[in-house]
Design goal:
Number of strands: 34
Helix content: 25-40%
Oligomer: single chain
Number of domains: 4
Shape: globular
Number of helices: 20
Strand content: 25-35%
CATH architecture of the largest domain: 2-Layer Sandwich
CATH topology of the largest domain: BirA Bifunctional Protein, domain 2
Radius of gyration: 30 Å
Structural class: alpha+beta
CATH class of the largest domain: Alpha Beta
Length: 642
């Protein structure tokens, strides 16, 4: 049998007989201590089970428990044990579907007549612990696909049969622990002994293969770690995330709501939420005017032919709504703003002296999202992009990308996001335009990042159909990543729409188009802000900066005077003159996360002052109305970076 070469990324290699297992091949390349700790191996993004036989030359890297890859193997193995426990507890009427590792955990889909309940979780966890404690091996085997179909048909596992039928291979891999056999690519841990620290978290409905016309299954979610401390820290973070859930806080703080009679995924902004949104929009507009942008407004619909020219009907139709008939012409709700801005550019001939043209718009767009994917403000069907398009000459491209990056990071920092990851997303499988244009656009973004000294990672195949992009994923207080900002260089739409400018040589030239959104969408960005700050917003964009609380009706007139004078100074205040105990009104103001409570009693009325109480319960020294107004305005100027 011919030998093959197995190498480490560092270059060391050994030659071993073909069909040597991963573990045996690596035994001659890694130390004994590392060999004992290995849970799998990987070649690039592909994971290998330690018992998997090797057939070709390969470069492998050991996967250790503390790595993300190691956690993936643990969680995949734990999902397998969970399926085994469910089958042993609930019998043959349970049909198993799929059970992958996912970010921060795992799930497994089951078909079962009765619904799983939280009480079932304890029984399942106990059975999982019993199975894991036995330390049984995960035994990998291969079987001809036809034999596997016959086997799972006999076991009355229709979901496994369907999966095998859709796999375009002659053989499939199986894993067995005890008497539980599962169709699986792996990899799994060598045995179950490391599966000790896990927690089942919730159950949700899931359509088989994501198809709303197929069977509704029950999806059990869980998580697992190699040590108890890490599991405890993760569960604590989840509890903190629940406290920060923007849907709960949005309701408690009266920021927004939804109504199924109007339509799911359509946000209704309540007065305080509308105020929050206005403050963010005003700041956004001010910053763009300062950086040489001009504001546009465009319609919500356009002729269907526009979306054909732009390529959206060919590459984005599944995310668009059905056309409507107007005067015997088909129109569609806009999923993007860019073709409208192109139309404005084409409204007259442009000169090279005019470029760059920087146009921005808070444009509301509409995209089809499946009902099951809708999630508060984070995933909606109608949202407002903080959109902009720059039309520039080739010699201006680099400077424009620099300027966008500077403005982008400045705005993110102003809102409290100073941690982020940057990705360069390259050409997807389906795209428009020439390979040369794609290469030029990708290189322009790459050079801009490198010259700015910004670290980035390549995100292969995640560009949009008309061009590559820079994505900036911000990190919140819980270190969760959120996709917001994007910068896209586009040589293709200018060609599709026949855009041009008159150059210094009096000939027509093609402009370059840059698409960019800094917040992504106002809805999503505000949802992230709510969770980042847990609803305790900085003073400069909190909807209500102060609430005036009178002690008795004797101070009502003076309290109204305070409110009028503070509003005249531009402060956002509200009044609570109810005939309630002061302690009750203070508690409600604190629950509403209002920064300042202005308490007005007889002493304050007589002296023309205010007692200022902070939302954390501390009191400031008494001050005049004017002093309080100036203090608030100074803090707001500092918060906005002025």
């Amino acid at each position: 049998m011919a030998d093959i070469s197995v190498s480490l990324p560092s270059g060391e290699s050994v030659r071993v007989p073909r069909l040597t297992t991963v573990a045996d091949a690596l035994a001659g390349l890694v130390s004994g201590k590392q060999r004992k700790r290995m849970v799998a191996a990987r070649a690039g993004d592909e994971l290998f089970d330690l018992r998997q036989p090797l057939t070709n030359d390969i470069t492998l890297e050991p996967v250790l428990p503390e790595s993300e890859w190691g956690l993936e193997v643990l969680r995949h193995s734990t999902a397998h044990i969970m399926a085994q426990a469910v089958r042993e507890l609930f019998g043959e009427d349970v049909k198993v579907a799929i059970g992958p590792a996912i970010e921060s955990g795992f799930y497994y889909d089951f078909q079962r007549r009765d619904a799983f309940t939280p009480d079932d979780f304890e029984r399942i966890e106990a059975k999982m612990a019993e199975i894991a404690a036995a330390g049984a091996s995960f035994v990998r085997s291969e079987m001809p696909s036809a034999d596997a179909i016959a086997l799972f048909s006999e076991r009355q596992e229709p979901f496994k049969v369907e999966l095998i039928q859709d796999i375009d291979t002659d053989t499939v891999s199986l894993f067995q622990v005890g008497n539980f056999l599962d169709l699986c690519r792996g990899p799994h841990l060598p045995d179950t002994s490391a599966i000790r620290h896990f927690k089942l978290q919730r159950v949700a409905g899931a359509y088989w293969r994501g198809d709303e016309k197929r069977e509704m299954l029950q999806r059990l979610y869980g998580t697992a770690f190699y040590d108890a401390k890490a599991l405890s820290a993760h569960l604590h973070a989840l509890e903190e995330a629940k406290k920060r859930d923007h849907r709960r806080l949005g309701k408690e703080l009266e920021l927004f709501t939804t109504d199924d009679s109007i339509g799911p995924g359509l946000i209704l902004w309540l007065p305080k939420g509308a105020q929050l949104r206005r403050l963010i929009e005003d700041y956004w507009k001010d910053e763009h005017y300062r950086h040489g942008y001009e504001l546009l407004y465009t319609p919500h619909i356009a002729r269907q032919d526009l979306w054909k020219t732009s390529g959206h009907l060919d590459f984005y139709a599944e995310n668009m709504y059905s056309p409507m008939q107007i005067d015997e012409v088909k129109y569609q709700l806009k999923p993007m703003n860019c073709p409208f801005h192109i139309g404005m550019y084409l409204s007259r001939q442009r000169s090279y002296r005019e470029l760059p043209v920087r146009w921005c718009e808070l444009g509301t767009v509409y995209r089809y999202e499946r009902a099951g994917a809708l999630h508060g403000l984070l995933r909606v069907r109608g949202f407002t992009q903080d959109d902009a398009h720059i039309f520039c000459r080739p010699d201006q491209l680099e400077e424009e990308i620099f300027n966008i990056l500077d403005l982008n990071l400045h705005i993110l920092r102003t809102f409290g996001f100073d941690r982020y990851d940057i990705y360069l997303s390259t050409r997807p499988e389906k795209y428009v335009g020439s390979d040369d244009n794609w290469a030029r656009a990708t290189e322009a973004l790459k050079l801009a990042l490198e010259k700015k000294g910004l670290a980035y990672a390549i995100d292969p195949g995640e560009g949009v159909f008309y061009g590559p992009k820079i994505d900036i994923k911000i990190k919140d207080q819980l270190s969760r990543s959120w996709q917001c900002s994007t910068i896209q260089v586009d040589f293709n739409l200018p060609e599709r729409f026949g855009m041009s400018f008159i150059g210094a040589d009096n000939n027509e030239h093609r402009p370059i188009m840059i698409h960019r959104a800094l917040m992504g969408s106002l809805e999503r960005f505000i949802g992230v802000l709510i969770e980042h700050y847990a609803g305790v917003f900085p003073l400069w964009f909190v909807p209500v900066q102060a609430r005036i609380l009178n002690i008795t009706d004797e101070q009502a007139d003076y309290s109204r005077e305070v409110a009028e004078r503070l509003r005249a100074e531009g402060l956002r205040v509200e009044q609570d003159f109810r005939n309630e105990k002061l302690s009750y009104k203070i508690r409600e103001a604190q629950q509403a996360k209002i920064p300042y409570m202005l308490i007005v009693g007889d002493n304050e009325k007589a002296s023309g002052t205010l007692t200022v109480r902070l939302r954390d319960g501390k009191n400031l020294p008494p001050m005049s109305i004017a002093e309080f107004a100036e203090m608030v305005k100074a803090e707001c100027r500092t918060g906005r970076g002025f």
